[in-house]
Every structure is written in structure tokens, then in C-alpha cells.
Amino acid sequence: MxxxxxxxxxxxxxxxxxxxxxxxxxxxxxxxRRGLARGLxxxxxxxxxxxxxxxxxxxxxxxxxxxxxxEALCQENNVYLVEVPxxxxxxxxxxxxxxDAAGNARKKVSCSCVVVxxxxxxxxxxxxxxxxxxx
Length: 135
Fold this sequence. Notes:
With 135 residues, the protein is of the alpha+beta class. 46% of the residues lie in helices and 20% in strands. The chain has helices spanning 13-32, 40-49, 64-77, 87-93, 124-134; strands spanning 2-4, 8-10, 36-38, 54-58, 80-84, 98-99, 105-106, 113-116. The strands form two sheets. Strands 2-1-5-4-8-3 form a six-stranded mixed sheet, sandwiched between helices. The protein starts with a strand and ends with a helix.
């Protein structure tokens, strides 16, 4: 997994697990405040409006032009870019799924790009996530 503001940084597997768990909490709080842009169209609009605070990109996205566009937008707007392993996992975290009575995710929709426009409430998870990204 890598993150970038001006350059890429390699992160170990243990740190990756920590970042993913923190990212899940931050995305959940952002979703509650309607602070997420999901999908390329919404993400580009968020970048154009200057609302983008952080961008999450799925590593398993097969379209090279898609990845290049998102990475260029992040670099141009000085927005943190965090990569996650799977688009289906990112889609679930971004609220693109239905939950059954037992609380299990059903009907998951993959999402290759999510932009955080509003972090919601300030939390320890957000501070720890920024500390991990900047380290």
C-alpha cells in the first residue's frame, strides 16, 4: 500500500492493516455526514469545486487511465491519496451495499474511487490516520 502527497511511501503489512481499520472508521463517520463522493464523476466534481480533503483509490482498478486521472487530480490539488486493495471493500465502506437482518453486507457494489469532502466529527481515528499517512 502506498500513500502520496508529493511522493509515494511504501508501508509494511502491519501498518497497512492499521491504516485500513482507521480508514474504515473515518469513512463511516464521513458517510453519516454525507461527506463522501463515490465514483469517478462525483470525485471529479469534488476536485473541481475544491471540496476534496482525501482520496481513496482501489489498487485492483483495471483501467490505467482511470488511475492516472485520479492520481493527477490528487497531485494537482495537494490531496492525500490512499490506496486500498479491493474495490468491493471500498464500496462496502462507502455505503454502496445493503445489510441483512444479521448485519452482514449483501449486494455489494464495487467502487474504485472515493473522495472525502467532510470528515464529520473530529476523532482519534482521524488523527491517527493522518499520523500514519504523514509518517
